Amino acid sequence: MKKLLSYLLTIFLTNPIITSLPIIQNHQNQLFNSPHSLQKDKLFLKVPQIVQIGADYCVAASLISLFSFWGWEKDKTQSQIYQEARAITKTPTWETGIRANKDLANYINDFIQKTTGKEADYKFNGVDISFGVSLDDIAIFSTYVWNSLSLNTPIIMGIHPNRGLGHAVVLCGYEEDLDNHWFDKYLFMDPTDGKFYEVIAQDLHKIFKYGFKLLGHGNMIGINNGVSIDISAFNDELKSIAGDNKPIFIDEVTVNLTQNVAISDLSYFSTAFSSIDFPSFRSEIKKVNDDPDIRECFGISTSLLPNTNVDYWKSENKLVHAYSEVIGCETIRTWISVTILINRSLNNDLTLSFRFYGGAKVTKNNTLQEIESPYELTGRIKIISGPNLILRRNLEA
User: Fold this and answer.
1) Which whole-number Å values give the CA distances from 207 to 12, 14, 129, 155, 317, in the listed order?
2) Dihedral over alpha carbons 262, 264, 265, 271 (to 10 degrees)
3) Long-range contacts, stretch 361-367, CB < 8 angstroms, 24+ apart
4) Looking at the structure, do residues 315 and 295 belong to the same domain, yes or no?
């Protein structure tokens, strides 16, 4: 938790995911340790268990649970809270439910102050892109959850596991896993049935597939648009490449997608990310006069990867860099390409490999007057991978 403690969280859940989560049993009201202790951090706020009265009342039921936790003595029905919140948040008549926005956060603060005399600092946080796909995301989320709950502030959380569908719950507990933060647990009260459930960090991306909305204490730290993954860097040079156009292996970069972004389903990977970039990549193709033709940065679109049947997908080849020049009656074209491969390990992890190749092709130009070259034309290549690759989030998700 020490490294997580400078970050924040998220909001809105849906039935297919919730019903698949295990029920939480025997949680005490408030059990927690200091985030500075050597023991695991664990905290649970026993919010009132409220069942929504209709399909569109998840936010209203969550609000009643939250208000009651703060000490409100119920003098309004779920329907009254529903209508009141819809009006304040300016939810259009053609929309069902209640919009989660800054107006809803202000409504929560005002309601708590007027009915209990207590001061709350609820803020609206939300993103419209996939979340929970990196340990940076988990650090942001866990820190926000811990900070909010440790201030006795339950969180109205929403998820969008399917496009256009959302569901509100009350996030009320957190348990850290000291060995692996992918197994941190988050506990919530689901107004669908009023019961407590949990979700672990490595499954957050399933319920935050199309973003989230969050109402908790204060503002959440912003997330990066890219997930950086360290790689085993290489710096290679090929000299005197024969002009027969045969590919020569240069080097390879392999990353375990499942370990780095908790994804074992490649169809979701292309939903979460739009491209894979090597920001510090640099390649040089030496001209005959030794001047280099340079390419900096390299990336591929995730649309090149398969959406299904990963195990039957062979590979994808892509030209990275090429340069041609005419010397006398010959043309030499030197090139660098990459072969992209995907493999699934025995434990179902997905690994993505980039195998770089170089080559050169020398051809005679019949239309040019033959001038005998004093030397054989050969290709020369230098390639630097850089220390990392970046998965760019799909901002159109």
Assistant:
1) 9, 8, 12, 16, 34
2) 30
3) 361/243, 361/244, 361/245, 361/332, 361/333, 361/335, 362/243, 362/330, 362/331, 362/332, 363/330, 363/331, 363/333, 364/329, 364/330, 365/326, 365/329, 365/330, 365/331
4) yes
Residue 176 counted as domain residue:
yes
Domain interval for residue 291: 227-365+377-393
- 39-80: per-residue pLDDT in tens? 567 899 999 999 999 999 999 999 999 999 999 998 999 999
Return contacts of 3-7, CB within 8 angstroms, 24+ apart. 3/139, 4/138, 4/139, 4/142, 4/143, 4/146, 4/176, 4/181, 5/35, 5/143, 5/146, 5/147, 6/143, 6/221, 7/139, 7/140, 7/141, 7/142, 7/143, 7/144, 7/220, 7/221
Domain boundary among the residues 175, 193, 223 is at: 223
Q: Which has the minimum average pLDDT: 26-40, 297-311, 366-380?
A: 26-40
H or E segment and range at residue 135: helix 135-150
- Are 291 and 142 members of one domain? no
**pLDDT > 90 in the chain, percent:** 59
What are the C-alpha distances in Å from 52 to residues 55, 79, 188, 277?
7, 10, 15, 45
- One domain for residues 163 and 215: yes
What local confidence, expressed as pLDDT, does residue 162 receive?
Answer: 75
Pair 165, 243 in one domain: no
What distance, in Å, lies between the first and last C-alpha atoms of the chain? 30
Give me the CATH number covering residue 185: 3.90.70.130
pLDDT (tens digit per residue) in 23-38: 233 333 333 333 434 4
Compute the distance between CA of residue 73 and CA of residue 54 in angstroms, rounded to an integer.
Answer: 22
- State whether the Cα torsion 202-207-210-216 is positive or negative: negative
* Contact indicator for 321, 295 with CB cutoff of 8 Å: yes
- Each residue's pLDDT tens digit, 143-170: 999 999 999 999 999 887 777 778 999 9
The reported pTM is 0.75
